Amino acid sequence: MSKKTLIPIGPYHPLQEEPELFKLYCDGEIVKDIKWETGYNHRGIEKLSESKTYEQIFFLVERICGICSTSHPFAFANAVEEIAGIEVTDRTKYIRSIIGELERIHSHLLWVGLAGHFLGYNTVFMWAWKYREPVLDLFEMISGNRNSYAMFKVGGVRRDIEMAKIPVIQKVLDDLKKKADMLTGAVMDDPVIHARIRGVGILTKQDIIDYGAVGPTARASGVAIDVRKDDPYAAYPLVNWKVITAQAGDVFAKAEVRLLEIHESISIIEQCLDGLKKEKEGDIAVKVKEIPEGIGIGRAEAPRGEVFHFVKSDGSNSPVRHKIRAPSYVNIATFKKSCIGQTIADATISLAAVDPCYCCTERMAVAYDLNSGDKIMNANELINVSVRKTNEIRKEIKSQL
Amino acid sequence: MAVNLFYFLVFPGLLFAAITGAFLSWFDRKITAMVQFRKGPPLLQPFYDFFKLLLVKETILPKQGSPLIFLLAPVFSAFGATMAGVFILLPLSNIATGFRGDLLVIFYLLTIPSFSYIIGALASANPLAAVGSSREMKLIISYEFTFLLFIAGIIMKCGQQFDLYSIIQAQQTSSPFIGSISGVLLFIVGIFCIQAKLALVPFDMPEAETEITEGIFIEYSGAAFALIKLTKYIMFFILPALLIALLMNGFRFNGFNILWAVLKLLAVVLALTLIRNTNPRIKIRQAIKFFALWMNLFAVIALVLIEFGY
Fold first, then answer.
1. Mind telling me how many Å the CA of A5 is from chain B's nearest CA?
2. What digits encode the pLDDT tens for the residues A306-323?
3. By C-alpha distance, which of B126, B286, B122 is closest to B203?
4. Is the dihedral of CA A210, A214, A218, A224 positive or negative?
5. What is the pTM of this model?
C-alpha cells in the first residue's frame, strides 16, 4: 500500500513561466500518474474573430502566441486565400517563407536555451538566447517589431524586403551558422547531457499516431509529418529542403531535431533570398476586392507543429466561423505516455521537451505603481520607447554595413 | 574563554569566514556572468542579499509544519559551519595548533549544515521540500564515504598524522601533496566532494529550481533564509580552504605569500565555478553512481598509490 504525493508544477512554477498546472502523482521520486489543467488564459479569440474584419483578424490571431506569432497569420492567410481563390506573387511567397523560417530559428533557439535552463545548465540558456538576439533584431529591421511582426495581409505582405536589406540578413545568417554549429556540437557531444536526456521521455511511433502529436515532437519519433511538405504552401515547394527526423523519440532526439532544423531553416532562407533577388521589387501584394461566400482551410507549420485554421465566410467583411487548432494543445496529451514511470527530474524535462506554448502573450497598455497608484506609462509612451529603440537598432545595423 | 569567543565570533570564525565567503561568492557569480555574456553583480551584492533578507523581508512560517524546528535548523546549520570554520582556519592561519584528531571533528562538523537543512525542510511539511530532503539524504550517503576515503588518503600520505596542523607542517617542510600522482587523484576526488557539499550544479538536485522550486529551502524566507545564506557563504570559504590545507600547502602570511594564498583560494573557487557552469544537473541516481563507483575507485587507486609511495 503506497501513498502518492502530489507534486504540483504550476500554475506558477519556475519550470514553465506560463499559467498551466501539471499534477504529478508521485511515489517517492517516481511519477505514477499525471493530470493537467490548462485554460487559465482563455481569451475567446475565435468568438472575437467573428466581430472583426479580415484585415483586423491578422492582428488578432498574431496575438494568440508571442513566440510563434507568424504561424497563425500564415495559416489564416492560407485559409482566406483559399476561399477567395487568390494566387499570391512569388515575391510574397518568398517573403512569407523567410519570416516563417526566421521565426522557426528564434523559437528553436529559445527552446534550446530553456531546455538548458531546465537542466540547470544556465550557460546554454544564456548562450542560446544571446545567439537568438540578432534574429530578433532582423525582425525589427524587416517589420519594425521584434515579436508580432504584422507582416501578413490577404493577398500579400505589408512590407517588402528591399535589396539593401538582403546582405544584412545574409551576414546575420552566416554568423548564426557558426554559432548554431557550435551549439549543436556542445549539446550533441556532451557526455553529461547524454546521460541526462538520452532514453528519457520516450514516445514511440505508435504513441505519436495514437495521440495525434505534431511538429518536432512527432518528427523526433520517426514520423515525418510536416505541413510544409505534406500540404505545400508559400515558397516551400520552390526551394530545396528536407524534413528532419530522428528515430529514438526521447528528449535527446527532440533536441537533435530542433537543432538540425535550425540549419535547415537557414538553408531555406538563403534559397528564398536568392529567389527574392530575381523578383521585381515592390510586387508584394495582389489587390483583393472581396471575400466571397465559402469555406477555407489554412495550415501552416509552426515551430511547435501544425497550426490549423478553418474559416467560413458568408460574403461579408468578417467570417461567420473561425476555428483554430494550435499544436501545443495536441502535443501535451502525450505526457500521459512520456512522463509516467519516470522520476521527477526526468518528468520535468519531458514536459518541457514538447515545447509547450500556452498562447501566452497578453498586451499591457498601462502600468500602475502598486503603492502610489500612479500611472507609470501609457500606451503611447510605450510605443514611443519601442519606436525609438527600433530607430537606434536600424542605425546600428546600417553603420555595421 | 574570551579569546575562544573571539575565535568563534570574529576571527577566524563567524565574521571573518562569512565576509570572505561572501566575497568569494561574488567572485563565483561574476565569473559565471562572464561565462554567460552577462555583466554580473556589483561587489557588495552578497551583502545586499543578506541584509535584505535579514532586515527587510518578513519570515513566513508554514502553517502545518513545526515552527520551532523549522526556525532552529538554520541556526544549527550556521553554528555547525562556523565551528568547522574555526577548527579549519585556526591551524591554517597559524594561530593555534589544534589537537590530535581534529580532522575527524571537522569531518563531522561539516555534515551538520546538510543535516540541519534536511530536518528544517521536513519540519516545513511541504511535499517539494520532502522530495528535496530525500534527495539531500541520498546525496550525503553517496559523497560522505568518498570524502572519508579522501581524508584517509591525506592521513596516510603524511604518515598517520590526524591533525590539520601537522598535515600543513608536513607539506610546508617538504612539498605539497598535490605534486604527486596520488595527490592529483585526491584533488579530483576532493573537488567533486566539495561541489556536492556546496550543492552546486551538477549536484544541486536537492534545490533544483526548475524541478522542485528550491526544494529544501522552499519555505524559508526572511531572517531564517538569511542564516542559510550565511551558512552558504561560510561553507563557500572553508571548504576550498580545507582543500588547500590538505593538499596545497596551506597558507603562509608573509610578503608575497599573502598574494599567493589569495590566488590559491581563487583558483580552487574558479575550478568549482567552471564545473558548475559547464555541466547540467545530473539525476540523483547518477550522482550516487558517480560517487559510489568512480570517485571511490579514484580514491582507492590513490590509496594504493600512496602505499607504494607515488
1. 7
2. 888 889 988 888 888 888
3. B286
4. positive
5. 0.83
